[in-house]
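quick one
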Amino acid sequence: MQLLDGKALAGTIRNEICAEVAQIISNGQRPPKLVAVLVGNDGPSQTYVGAKEKDCSEVGFDSEVLRFSEEVSEAELMDTVERLNGDPQVDGFIVQLPLPSHMNDQRILEAIRPDKDVDGFHPENVGKMALGLEGFVPATPAGIVELLKRHAIDTEGKLCVVIGRSSIVGMPMALLMGKNAQPGNCTVVQTHSRTKDLKGICAQADILIAALGRPCFVGEEMVKDGAVVIDVGISRIEDTSRKSGFRLVGDVDFEAVANKCSYITPVPGGVGPMTRTALLQNTLQAYYRHQEK
Ligand code: NAP
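structure w/ NAP:
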């Protein structure tokens, strides 16, 4: 079994981005800029946005966090989106989800200019991804594809089972694995909460991608010998032996499954760091596209 060390690979890719930014600056140009819009005091959202800010500063990007109270109106947020759309110094921006219940997430996401939508959630980018055209791919599936690619994992003709069909992970993941590309060219089975005989289907997978958000759901009986297992899930479970009182686990029962796999991602340190790095890669891509115009 080989561990797919997302943390180490993310470090390598960040060094590559750093070198590119140094080159950009030595050419007398401004660095790429990412803006995050954060509404309210949701704990996890604050953590994610803080991490994005830190990541930007580590690779030499400019970044800014625009914070709004929970009570901000949708109209005011729309004005901010419009301002960011028109700001030539901003290459990409994200609106951290979830938004408060008085707002329509989809309306806000659709107001973001597609060439600045580095989260890849705008319908234009989703459509481009489905058609195999150049656009932005959501960070988690993009990071997983990069992880497979950099480990030269052969996916051609393999049976890939994706558990989950969310618009940010499962759905784009299935599209990318079925694409005529390397990584890609898999025969893809997309499963979800209504799937019958999920265990039997998973047990046939050459590549199993678990993105359902159920701690340690994938057990030994669901994994074929020699399978590649990608664990997207992140859940906190109580652990009184830790100072924090909890630990992070994935959707895969790592201890039970690891020895059966050819490759497996750990949690933490697998898909998470690759997701963060993919957002930086998308921002760099947005920067270059804006420079070309
Ligand atoms: P989500 O929006 O809640 O979607 C979960 C999907 O799993 C749904 O399609 C659901 O099916 C399916 N599902 C739930 N229970 C199932 C079951 N018992 N059997 C089969 N399918 C089941 O979650 P998400 O945003 O995709 O995230 C999934 C997990 O990945 C979460 O733990 C999240 O924290 C984690 N995550 C990690 C990263 C990272 O960077 N590592 C990034 C994003 C998300 P239905 O559609 O039928 O309801």
